[in-house]
Amino acid sequence: MRPQLTRAHGIPTTPPTTHRPAGPNAAGRPRLRRALASLATLALTLTAVLATSEAPAQAVGFVRECKAYSVACISFSGYAGTSVWGYPVSSSGNNCVNYVAYRLRKNGVAQQSAMGNAGSWATNAKRRGFLVNRTPAIGSIAQWNYGSVYAPTYGHVGYVEEVTSSYIVVSDSAWSGYSSRMKLSVGDRNWPSNFIHFKDQGYQPPPSGTFIKVRETGQAFRLVGRAPVFISTWTGFGGTKPTFLVSSTTLPKLPLRPANGTFIRGAQRGEVYQIVGGAPVFVSSWIPVGGAKPYVTVDQLAIDRAGSASPYNHLLYRPADGALIKAGPTGATYKVLAGHPTLVAPSTGAMVVDPAAVSHAGDTSAIRWTHLLSRR
Predict the structure, then answer these.
(1) What angle do CA 155, 157, 159 make, to 5 degrees?
(2) pLDDT digits (tens, 9 = 90+) for 83-134
(3) What would the pLDDT profile of 31-73 be if each residue is shown by its tens digit?
(4) Do residues 110 and 222 both lie within one domain?
(5) 182 — phi, psi (to 5°)?
(6) Do residue 217 and residue 167 come from a single domain?
(7) Residue 252 forms part of a structural domain
(8) Is 4 exposed, middle or buried (0-12, 13-18, 19+ CB in 10 A)?
(9) Residues 99 and 191 placed together within one structural domain of the fold
(10) Out of 24-33, 93-102, 230-239, 298-307, which region has the weakest mean confidence (pLDDT)?
(11) Is 288:280 a contact under the CB 8 Å cutoff?
């Protein structure tokens, strides 16, 4: 007889046995049958639970890189859990359609209200004239249909952050209360049903100061602005820090070097430098550069080995040729040529630097001064 589910607990039950024990071991057989029946009941119970679960099917090609019952996993985008274009949010600020609406609005897409449940988004987007296909792109919306393995009931939508030849990364939000970032391999059964191309974008890195790690190599960097600066050791940072994973395909899409005028601080020696022509120039005092400035703490070795082979090539050792610097707010103006500050006529485009860095140019008594060669 096929087991029936009781209404009270949903536990499969079996009819009592009518077989009469016989033979010398008859006394132990009822206990054995009861034990076997219990095991069968447990197996059927587990089968029923797994069969009715709406959780995404976990496969080798599906990795949840971040999951939080808050908006923590998607806050890097600036999302704070407030309603966009009339879409509701749960008590934790989450809802898949509201989150992608936020990302679309941020990308400059015109208001797209009343798109319905996530499972209807592909159909409704087509009706509104947007391209819908099976090809992922950064900035596109990953969409799961009704009845999909990942989201069988209401469907789902998420934002495509990264695209490689073998996997994509999607950030998403769920009405049930969580936010996440997931890596999906090509061919995985949880792969999105469609990709909606409202307004595709280039890769948008997390905020400056974020620690990132490359999935394929395990190399760690810290973002200075949008540029990655290599971390050889966590010494000076108070131990290993949480990292935001990126692909080896994404890393080259980031700016090679920090923007001029950015300030960094070496973690191990506490020295502050100003980025000039892609290189760190020592700052002995905040006064000549207009007072204290925000800075990002980086691995000191990235400064000391600047300009050497990858992964230390995200800083130059000396400013690029043609960089204009001014020794303090009222000092002389120089053009850097082959690492040497060369005196030139005053220019409004010169970057104000600590005059001590100029006066000590070429001084080999301390490595901090060697990012400029002697004056000419």
Answers:
(1) 165
(2) 999 999 999 999 999 999 999 999 999 999 999 999 999 999 999 999 999 9
(3) 444 544 444 433 333 332 222 223 444 446 999 999 999 999 9
(4) no
(5) -130, 145
(6) no
(7) yes
(8) exposed
(9) yes
(10) 24-33
(11) no
- Domain co-membership, 182 together with 216: no
Is 180 domain-assigned? yes
Distance of alpha carbon 112 from alpha carbon 115, whole angstroms: 7
What is the residue range of 337's domain? Answer: 211-369
First to last CA, the chain: 98
Provide the CATH number for the domain around residue 159: 3.90.1720.10
130 is written with which tokens? 């947007």
- 229 and 121 co-located in one domain: no
217 lies in the same domain as 365: yes
| Judgement on whether residues 362 and 218 belong to the same structural domain of the protein | yes
d(CA 37, CA 15): 10
Residue 21, domain member (yes or no): no
Closest CA to 291 of 333, 239, 230, 354: 354
Q: Radius of gyration (Cα) for the chain, nearest Å?
A: 30
One domain, residues 253 and 364: yes
| Phi, psi angle pair for 88, to nearest 5° | -80, 165
Burial of residue 294, with CB atoms counted within 10 A of its CB: 0-12 exposed, 13-18 middle, 19 or more buried: exposed
Instruction: Check: CB of residue 340 under 8 Å from CB of residue 267.
Output: no
Q: Quickly count: other Cβ atoms within 10 Å of residue 301's Cβ.
A: 18
Q: How many domains does the chain have?
A: 2
342 within domain boundaries: yes
